């Protein structure tokens, strides 16, 4: 019979072992500055009507939704450490995020968000009833 020897780390080795679960400081600052620029672009959409005219509103909505998704992925990947998690946790998280975005878009669609009539009323109000004639 042969004897196998296994090497195990002592408790002193485990205390000094470093875990690399996350990015470097340089990566975090790069993501921070990217988020600052994207946020400045989002804020600038408030004045797009004045700068580019009324036709820029649908483009601004598309840009805002796109920036929302990009910023969400950056924050979730780096600051929530999702980038370094196991693949199953990533899939679960991304599936939930995709479902949440779908629900959000469906809710905006049902509230007439995509077309703006300029009023707080529904875009297609019911027709007015005919006037009642006075009888003698």
Topology:
Layout: H1 11-16, H2 25-44, H3 48-52, H4 57-79, H5 87-110
Helix pairs in contact: 2-4
Q: Name the average pLDDT.
A: 78
Helix fraction by DSSP (H/I, runs of at least 4): 55-70%
Question: Order of SSEs, N→C?
Answer: HHHHH
Distance between the termini: 119 Å
- What's the alpha carbon Rg, rounded to whole Å? 28 Å
The count of β-strands is 0
- Sum up the overall morphology in one term: elongated
| Percent strand | under 5%
Major sheet size, sense and barrel closure: none
The total count of helices amounts to 5
Structural class: mainly alpha
Task: Report on the architecture of this protein.
The radius of gyration is 28 Å and the shape is elongated. The chain has a domain at 24-110. The model has no long low-confidence stretch (mean pLDDT 78). The protein contains five helices and no strands. The chain has 136 residues and is mainly α. The longest helix is centred in the C-terminal third of the chain and has 24 residues, at 87-110. Helix content is 57%, strand content 0%.
Give a quick summary of the entry.
By secondary structure, the protein is mainly α. It is about 55% helix and about 0% strand.
Task: Give a quick set of tags describing it.
136 residues, mainly alpha, 0% strand
């Amino acid at each position: 019979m042969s004897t196998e020897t296994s090497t195990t780390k002592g408790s002193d080795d485990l205390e000094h072992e470093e875990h690399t679960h996350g990015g470097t400081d340089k990566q975090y600052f790069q993501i921070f500055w990217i988020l600052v620029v994207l946020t400045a672009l989002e804020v600038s959409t408030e004045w797009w009507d004045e700068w580019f005219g009324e036709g820029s509103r649908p483009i601004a909505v598309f840009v805002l939704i796109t920036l929302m998704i990009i910023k969400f992925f950056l924050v979730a990947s780096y600051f929530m450490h999702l980038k370094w998690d196991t693949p199953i946790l990533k899939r679960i998280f991304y599936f939930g995020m995709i479902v949440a975005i779908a629900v959000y878009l469906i809710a905006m669609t049902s509230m007439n968000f995509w077309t703006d009539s300029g009023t707080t009323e529904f875009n297609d109000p019911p027709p007015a009833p005919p006037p009642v004639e006075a009888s003698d």
